[in-house]
# Entry
Amino acid sequence: MTGSIKSFALVLLELRRFIKLLAGAVGMTTLVFFFVSSRLLVGAQDFLGQKLYFFSVAGPFLAHVNLAFFGALYVLMPLCMYVLWKAVSRPFKITKRRLFWFVSATCVLFYGGTIFCAAVTLPFGIQFLLSYQSEELLAYISVGHFVRFVVLFIFAFGIIFELPVFMLFTTQVGVISRAAYEKHRRYAVLIIAILAAVLTPTPDVVNMALMGVPLYFLYESGILLIRLAGSEKKIK
# Structure
């Protein structure tokens, strides 16, 4: 355990070397996205199907800034993943071949999760939430709140879909064994159900299943991936 703590401390030190590079790239890309954020907002509003409003003078400007920032993070996710895994590679002695695999896999899973969210879960969730409006109860949705809701929800799906790679990494560095993942499936189901209830925009079973079922599939995929990798480190 002490060795793992020291390794993670070294990861933080390695990350400091890349912070300026990453911050500069995000800042410049955010500036570029800011000039096209109006078009991005129109695309995001298609999910809603009705007008957005603002209730403060700075509301529209801040919404465009947030949209540009998250747009920059989305495009630069491969660079972010490379910086993260590059920092992890030295303390945990990850080879260049595995580094390439980890970066590629995390990017594919992240973008896969965001696309799944945008195409399946988010439209269902928004449609369900807006079904409560009526002639007496009209929805006046703030542009700022809507942008934060959409981007955070999409990013949450992208990050959660990284589960198989996280599981493989923890076994290869000796933090958690494959046997532990197999033994505690029922706890994994419970945690997945809680995450689905918290992160999905609606409390109905259908929307929870849209997140919970893929997550459990990813959990089982992680166990299978560990078996196929065949390089599990023994935990002392």
Remarks:
- The chain has a mean pLDDT of 82.
